Amino acid sequence: MVVVLLLIVTYKKFQFSNTAYVFMSLWIFMHTIGAYYTFERVPFDWFNNLFGFERNMYDRVAHYIIGFYAYPLAEYVYRKNLVKAPWIIYALAIFAVFTLASVYEIIEWIYAVKAGGEQGIAFL
């Protein structure tokens, strides 16, 4: 909800491209489904069967999609002329996403260790 509210509040000041909104929406959509079912119980059999996975890979796909936020970050930096060199724009966007994802994974890990047992596994 924080991401959606932030996009609504800032819409008049900065509008992303349709592609950026689609990428951001995919992450919101995937995580909403994951929150509804819990990530380990999302009915994702079609994907798992397609690639022959025994484990439900929904959480990994949803985590991968956070990388799609590199596109709107790069778009923002480019259109605001915050950085001149294109390779720095791309690197900055990718590193920002890596940092955010890494921090979340560390929080997940710490909680799982502290909660332990079924509660820790459910959080993961």
Brief overview:
With 124 residues, this protein is mostly helical.
Describe this structure as you would to a colleague.
- Helices cover 73% and strands 0% of the residues.
- It is built from seven helices and no strands.
- The chain has helices at residues 2-10, 18-37, 45-51, 58-65, 70-79, 86-115, 117-123.
- Helix 2 (18-37) runs antiparallel to helix 4.
- The two termini are 20 Å apart.
Give the SSE string: HHHHHHH
* Helix residue percentage: over 70%
Mean pLDDT metric: 88
Strand segment count: 0
Catalogue the unreliable spans.
Answer: none
Structural class: mainly alpha
Q: Radius of gyration over alpha carbons?
A: 17 Å
Number of helical runs? 7
* Proportion in β-strands: under 5%
Shape: globular
List the helices and strands and how they pair.
Layout: H1 2-10, H2 18-37, H3 45-51, H4 58-65, H5 70-79, H6 86-115, H7 117-123
Keyword list:
single chain, 124 residues, mainly alpha, 73% helix, 0% strand, globular
